Amino acid sequence: MNVSRRDFLKKAGVVGVAAGGGMFPDLGAAAYSRIAGANDRIRTAVIGVNSRGNALAQNFAAQPQCEIVTVCDVDRRAIEKCAAKVKEIQNKTPKGEKDFRRVLEDKNVDAAVIAMPDHWHAPAALLALQAGKHVYLEKPVSHNPREGEMLMEAAARYGKILQVGTQRRSWPKVREAIRQVQDGAIGKVHFGKGWYVNNRPGIGVGKVTAAPDWLDWELWQGPAPRTAYRDNIVHYNWHWFWRWGTAETLNNGTHMIDLLCWGMNLEYPTRISSTGGRYFYRDDWETPDTQTVGMQFGDKASLLWEGYSCSGKPIEGSPVGVIFYGEAGSLYIAGGNEYRIFDKKGKLVSEVKSDIAINPQNQVSPAQQLDAIHIVNFFDAIQKGTPQNVTIRDGHQCTLLMQLANISFRRGKSLDIDPSDGHIIGDAEAQRFWSRSYEPGWEPKA
User: Fold this and answer.
1) For 65-95, what is each residue's pLDDT tens digit?
2) In sequence order, which residues have a C-beta less than 8 Å from that of residue 315 and are 6 or more positions away?
3) Distance in angstroms (rounded) separating the CA atoms of residues 60 and 66
4) Which residues, other chains included, contact 166 with Cβ-Cβ below 8 Å and sequence gap of 6+?
5) Torsion over CA: 412, 413, 414, 415 (sign)
6) Cα angle vertex 231, ends 411, 255, to 5°?
7) DSSP letters of 285-327?
8) Residue 274 — φ and ψ, nearest 5°?
9) What span, in angstroms and rounded, lies between the C-alpha atoms of 114 and 306?
10) pLDDT tens digits, one per residue of 352-371
């Protein structure tokens, strides 16, 4: 079956609603293509295309500003599957490549989408910037705080667009909700709460075995110190190992902390504390499946985030969300492009709904239609100089806060933080988590 860009856009609900009721008027495909610059396509490579990257490749391919010229993965099967999907949309088969370094050497590539595992995010983005590519980087932006600082340095040095995949920054009614908070709709806000809930199964005890012939295990590990292949790591379960992943805090909590800091104009805290553990299964999972994070921003405000990976009762009726608590009421953003405002007694006074269905527990593509807006913003920043809806500084900030939460958890104590730059104060043991050890020869450089 051959699916054209127009068919894909219509199926995804992008044509006419790409802006969700705010950024563009109701447009037909032809008019949308003219606005988006269909005749001046940005040649894009998508790196890491097994799951989330596959969904991103299809969404990018559907945008008139884009041509997917290469799909790259260390899994041969993922390349084949993604290339076939992209061809259905753009009617042209992208090149397949296993080694992303060869992709970055290709002068035919203008931009790189990085959707690799977390331990690869910053090292790959740094190499892409150094190779002169614009970069769309999935969150979290880094595996550790030092990598995030290196990304900010590199973005300034190389002068390329670096967009972070915290897509809610582009969802129109979420943006409207944030403006409501900032404009005083619920009075002065001193406290915000976010959460993520799921019912993830256990991952068992992995068996050491030879890597399958479809996987380049050496290249998959890349900058991470080497270890033997086990059969319960690739593809998704790496999230729960400190060597490669960053726990639920950065897998999902990053989005919610970003909304809270954005709405309340918060940067770096003065104190952060996190507790929790791996409670629900006896298996190889290393990171917490239950975790609470408290952040204090001097006498200005405090934040709370709760993560329940294996205890699936929704909070406030949603598996993911945030609530801003103000002096005159509260504002609630659930997992979708919508929000509600309540008065001080908890009475609903305003509800803004979205007709676009969202599944926040879909780990691959929970909000394809809305994410298209974020992608278009990336291309507009490249072609027109349009301000980015999220910068690397924004992405580093929300990533760093959750990295500090993980450091607090692993250290087993609260951390004092310098509010000017987010650095840890007076704790040498905690400071050792600021960076990491790398496989020799793979150390990232800004």
Assistant:
1) 999 999 999 999 999 999 999 999 999 999 9
2) 195, 197, 306, 321
3) 6
4) 139, 254, 255, 258, 390, 394, 395, 398
5) negative
6) 45
7) --S-SEEEEEEEETTTEEEEEEEETB----BTTBSEEEEEEET
8) -145, 135
9) 28
10) 998 776 665 555 455 788 99
- Which two three-digit tokens encode residue 412? 């087993």
- Rounded CA separation 137/358 (Å): 22
d(CA 69, CA 42): 9
Helix (H, G, I), strand (E, B) or coil at 55: helix
Taking CA atoms, 192 is separated from 137, 249, 300, in Å, by: 27, 16, 12
Length of the chain: 446
The pLDDT score that the predictor gives to residue 356 is 76
Tell me the C-alpha distance between 63 and 84, whole Å: 17
The predicted structure's pLDDT at residue 40: 86
Amino acid at position 73, single letter: D
Kindly report, residue by residue over 170-229, the tens digit of the pLDDT. Answer: 999 999 999 999 999 999 999 999 999 999 999 999 999 999 999 999 999 999 999 999
Band of the pLDDT at 111, cuts 50, 70, 90? very high
**Cβ partners under 8 Å of residue 34, min gap 6:** none
For range 381-410, the mean pLDDT: 97
Calculate the alpha carbon distances from 136 to 17, 45, 183, 189, 378 in Å: 23, 10, 30, 32, 7
